[in-house]
Amino acid sequence: MAPSSDDPDLILPPVFSLVVTAGPESAFDEACDAAASGDATGGLVWRRSAELLDFAVILGPDEPLATARRAFFAGMVALAEAIGAHGPPEIPVTFDWPDTIRFDGTRLGGGRLGWPSTCGEDEVPDWLVFSATIIASKARAGDPGLTPDSTSLENEGFALEDANGAIVESFARHLMKAFAVWDENWFTGIEQRYLQRLADGGPSARIGRIDTNGDFLADGGRRHPLMAVLTGVAWRDPITGEPRL
Questions:
Q1: CATH (residue range 17-186)
Q2: What is d(CA 33, CA 47) in angstroms, rounded to the nearest whole number?
Q3: pLDDT in tens, the chain (245 residues)
Q4: What is the sign of the dihedral through the CA atoms of 245, 138, 199 and 183?
Q5: Which of the four, 39, 137, 157, 242, has the lowest number of CB atoms within 10 Å?
Q6: How many CA atoms lie within 13 A of 170 on its CB side?
Q7: Per the confidence metrics, is the pTM higher than 0.85?
């Protein structure tokens, strides 16, 4: 996956190779196709769109799929930190378990994780893809009052002419930081950062934990599975393939 010739002037860590697209295929699908074709880890696909902030990164895991899926949480933490860094100050960026992201309590979009369909749970996957799709503008949806369950970067005061690229750039830096934290403190450092943003976990999120396979174990032992929800993508409209409005 070669870098685009018309890359915007983003400053990314050197491990990332930016590819900019404007086609109908999602960044998630573009990245999964590229990864399955053997393109290098570190490809960051950004699909330019006025309505969506849509990007994906190819990761190179070094542990079996059953535990490597926890990279999803590193991606979600990096996404939340990137959004928080460029939005109005002191507005909470939170999660609904496990993949929905909210801004000031209102749904903004979410994250996805892809992996090779033929990879067994006890095998190290050749690649993982983490992607994020965020509502940038609801202008085409008409009156925002008709879709009160969701919000957009534009509605929340982000400067759209700068925000999309700035968030992509910031995400890349925060993702590198997240994996550095993982290396230094094992998965515990990522787990803590994720759980403190878990909006629908209530007090149990503060005393629960994430199991080695990515499931959330709440206080009292109740298990909230990761795998089933990741394949369902709760924040995504199954018809449009875009965030639900």
A1: 3.30.930.10
A2: 14
A3: 544 544 567 889 999 999 999 888 999 999 999 999 987 778 999 999 889 999 999 999 999 999 999 999 999 999 999 999 998 888 999 999 999 999 999 999 999 999 999 999 999 999 999 999 999 998 877 666 778 899 999 999 887 666 788 999 999 999 999 999 999 989 999 999 999 998 755 544 556 899 999 999 987 778 889 988 888 888 999 888 889 98
A4: positive
A5: 157
A6: 18
A7: yes
Q: Could you tell me if 73 and 181 are in contact, meaning their C-beta atoms sit under 8 angstroms apart? A: no
For residue 46, give every residue at least 6 positions away whose Cβ sits within 8 Å of its Cβ, in sequence order, or none.
18, 19, 20, 21, 27, 54, 55, 168
**Backbone phi, then psi, for 12, in 5-degree steps?**
-115, 150
Dihedral angle over CA of 147, 156, 139, 28, nearest 10: -90
Residue 14: is the preceding peptide bond cis (ω within 30°)? no
Nearest CA to 131 among 109, 146, 116, 151? Answer: 109
Q: Give CA separation, 75 vs 79, 109, 208, in Å.
A: 6, 14, 20
Which residue in 5, 101, 115, 16 sits closest to 53, CA to CA? 101
Confirm if 94 and 21 have CB atoms less than 8 A apart. no
Q: Residue 43, class by beta-carbon neighbours within 10 Å (0-12 exposed, 13-18 middle, 19+ buried)?
A: buried
Please give the C-alpha separations between residue 173 and each of 75, 82, 111, 222, in angstroms, as whole numbers: 11, 9, 17, 34
Q: Where are the domains of the chain?
A: 17-186
